[in-house]
Amino acid sequence: MKKIFKLLTLVSLSSCSLLGFQSFAFAEMTPAGQEALVKAGETMYQHRCRVCHSNDMEHPSYGPPLKNILGRKAGSVPGFNYSDALKNSGIVWNEKKLREWIKDNKSVMPGTRMRHVGITDKTEQDFLLTFLKHISK
Ligand code: HEC
Fold first, then answer.
1. What is the pLDDT along the chain (137 residues), one digit of tens a residue?
2. 10 to each of 5, 16, 19, 97, how far by Cα in Å?
3. Residue 92 CB–ligand 1 contact under 6 Å
4. Does the reported pTM lie above 0.85?
């Protein structure tokens, strides 16, 4: 009996570590899973971005609104006072650029007015990207 229990623990531990190394398999994800991911991303956003960013295009806060950020040209929200660095960057925000930005925005773009955020954890980046995609529909 004890042996079986040990075996089960081993099996569940190894499947956990397997999961840890897997990246998200969006293709196989059910709508419930997708919804859970968006919620996880929203939580990240509330904790790490919301203090400076709203989604409301009419009422920007300290940072520019992030609604429809995917596919948007950097520094292009009318009326927002961007740094020259961001305005002249020539970036069009895609998933790769956003990932680099939230990982280390100050290194990607010296001269930006956005305070350094360092979201280096791949899973946290995945959550945030899912949410940013969600508000870009
Ligand atoms: C301390 C305030 C602050 C925090 C926290 C913050 N930002 Fe920003 N963000 C800014 C400011 C200010 C700008 C404009 C920077 C400039 O003009 O150089 C900006 C710009 C951006 C841009 C470029 C937008 C555009 O219109 O081109 C993106 C994308 C962005 N932030 C994403 C995020 C994300 C995602 C988070 C959370 C992980 C985050 N920011 C956290 C203040 C912040």
1. 455 555 444 444 444 444 444 455 556 889 999 999 999 999 999 999 999 998 777 776 899 999 999 999 999 999 899 999 999 999 999 999 999 999 999 999 999 999 999 999 999 999 999 999 999 97
2. 9, 10, 14, 39
3. no
4. no
Domain 31-134 CATH (choose: 3.60.40.10, 3.40.1190.20, 3.90.1150.10, 1.10.760.10) = 1.10.760.10
Ligand 1 mutation pick, 42, 46, 53, 136, max ligand atoms within 8 A of CB? 53
SS3 category, 76: coil
Residue showing tokens 């919804």 = 35
Nearest CA to ligand 1 atom 33: 49
With a 6 Å cutoff on the Cβ, whether 101 touches ligand 1 is yes
The answer, yes or no, to whether any atom of ligand 1 lies below 6 A from the CB of 109, is no
Euclidean distance between the first and the last CA atom of the chain, given in angstroms as a whole number: 53
